[in-house]
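in:
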């Protein structure tokens, strides 16, 4: 069935701001096929009508479309900013003795608000229950149900030390259950950030965390949402946005402030101790301030997630590059190019920016421009694996097989473990009828991907998206077809 996605994309954007492009479109197609089947709708038009008229059906669809990626103590330097700077300042300023109200907007399955509670619990002990009130809000009702349950799998603990688990979680079969002393602190609410009005429970926050959500919106939507969040903040409130997203959210709604080398937004009177507040971020002239040394009173050294991670200095260029790469991964190529153009204006010849730009140009089949960018990057780094692979791909896509082989060989020469280049080489050999060489390369890739620690392929910039499992499958499949039975390799998963 061919689906016209446009009416669906428009309806979703209009109701909750989500922009579904690239991967988002693929996901929408899959999810629609599923929902049309489940609801026994005769065709797309019938389902669309149901979607427009049924709040529940719209909610079911949105639940399937949202991206809920999250984990405990994500971007922990911002949690440290919260506990060491923002909260102490607000506690000093507070005149009414009321608890400070903290919201995680777009809280997904709860890892973010619970990390906030645990962080403050480390600093303020049992006083947490009367000093603060915590809320989490999300449009995804299934994610909220999971958040309320307080049950998490190993996947939510990336980067968290065992002692955190031991202190705040109990084993629950294969999973972990958050102890009630933390779980009961957070109130979860259904919340559409794009709504025109919000219930009373979602007003008057001192601090709002809004991280890793804005990337799913375009700039006009981001501005509307930031205005909504600003309205939900108290006059002296703070808005903390994910590190890589901050610049793309400097929209003139709230003042951008830098402190300890980290950025956040402030409403009303700016904090006296904060470094150089600016109403709008001046990319051209900005020079980041040096990072402050960690406080001597720091008491979390037993939490490995913080222990060794002194506040690192976020460099403006790095922000822009990270954001551009994130956009690129999400296939928001226009936005990525916009960031890269600004970045290259500021630091002409930056090899990483040139390569990412070339990657987008390649995807748009602008071969000459992509090649020019990669060659320029080679001038500053003559052994850039990214540049070799990119030039190889450009030649391969133009069916210049010999040239493609030369570039991929160059990548393998520079880095033997560059298994993506070896995979592309294998494909080229196979297409060119050189079965022996193809088998050798497929086996080489299988061998590298079967090592207990898959080696670094040396590609730093290009978001190639070659999942190990799929690549292994493809290599085995091709080897089978070429008559070279894939070896059963030791240590395979
Ligand atoms: C990637 S998660 C981020 C989770 C967490 N803030 C973090 O940084 O780990 C993005 C969340 O934003 C939510 N979201 C997307 N659009 C929303 C909207 N219009 N209103 C409220 N939440 C939304 C999604 O449901 C999803 O759970």
């Amino acid at each position: 069935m061919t689906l016209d996605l446009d009416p669906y994309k428009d309806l979703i954007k209009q109701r909750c701001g989500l922009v579904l492009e690239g991967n988002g479109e693929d996901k929408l197609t899959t999810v629609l096929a599923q929902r049309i089947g489940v609801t026994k709708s005769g065709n797309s038009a019938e389902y669309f009508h149901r979607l427009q008229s049924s709040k529940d059906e719209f909610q079911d669809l949105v639940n399937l479309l949202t991206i809920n990626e999250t984990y405990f103590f994500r971007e922990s330097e911002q949690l440290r900013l919260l506990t060491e700077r923002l909260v102490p300042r607000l506690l000093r300023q507070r005149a009414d003795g009321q608890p400070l109200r903290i919201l995680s907007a777009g809280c997904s399955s709860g890892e973010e608000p619970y990390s906030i509670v645990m962080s403050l619990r480390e600093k303020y002990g049992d006083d947490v229950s009367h000093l603060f009130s915590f809320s989490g809000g999300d449009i995804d009702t299934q994610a909220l149900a999971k958040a309320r349950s307080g049950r998490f799998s190993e996947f939510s603990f990336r980067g968290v030390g065992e002692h955190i688990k031991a202190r705040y979680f109990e084993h629950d079969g294969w999973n972990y259950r958050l102890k009630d002393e933390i779980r009961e602190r957070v109130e979860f609410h259904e919340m559409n950030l794009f709504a025109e009005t919000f219930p009373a429970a979602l007003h008057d926050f001192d601090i709002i965390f809004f991280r890793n959500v804005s990337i799913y919106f375009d700039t006009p939507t981001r501005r509307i949402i930031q205005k909504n969040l600003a309205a939900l903040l108290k006059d002296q409130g703070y808005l903390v946005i994910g590190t890589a997203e901050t610049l793309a959210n400097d929209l003139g709604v709230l003042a951008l402030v830098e402190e300890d080398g980290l950025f956040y937004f402030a409403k009303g009177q700016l904090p006296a101790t904060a470094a150089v507040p600016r109403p709008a971020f001046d990319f051209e002239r900005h020079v980041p301030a040096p990072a402050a040394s960690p406080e001597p009173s720091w008491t979390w050294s037993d939490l490995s997630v913080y222990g060794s991670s002194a506040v690192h200095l976020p460099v403006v260029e790095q922000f822009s590059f990270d954001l551009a790469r994130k956009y690129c991964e999400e296939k928001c190529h226009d936005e990525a190019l916009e960031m890269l153009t600004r970045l290259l204006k500021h630091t002409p010849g930056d090899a990483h920016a040139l390569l990412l730009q070339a990657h987008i140009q390649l995807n748009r089949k602008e071969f000459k421009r992509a090649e020019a960018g990669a060659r320029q990057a080679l001038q500053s780094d003559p052994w850039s694996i990214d540049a070799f692979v990119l030039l190889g791909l450009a030649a391969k896509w133009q069916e210049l097989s010999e040239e493609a082989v030369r570039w991929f060989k160059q990548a393998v020469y520079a880095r033997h473990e560059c298994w993506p280049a070896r995979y592309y080489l294998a494909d080229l050999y196979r297409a060119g009828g050189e079965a022996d060489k193809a088998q050798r390369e497929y086996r080489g890739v299988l061998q590298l991907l079967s090592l207990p620690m898959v080696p670094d392929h040396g590609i730093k910039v290009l978001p190639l998206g070659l999942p190990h499992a799929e690549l292994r499958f493809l290599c085995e499949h091709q080897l089978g077809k070429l008559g070279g039975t894939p070896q059963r390799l030791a240590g395979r998963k």
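note: The pocket of S-adenosylmethionine is lined by residues 16-18, 66-70, 74, 106-108, 112, 138-140, 143, 191-194, 211-213, 216 (CB under 6 Å).
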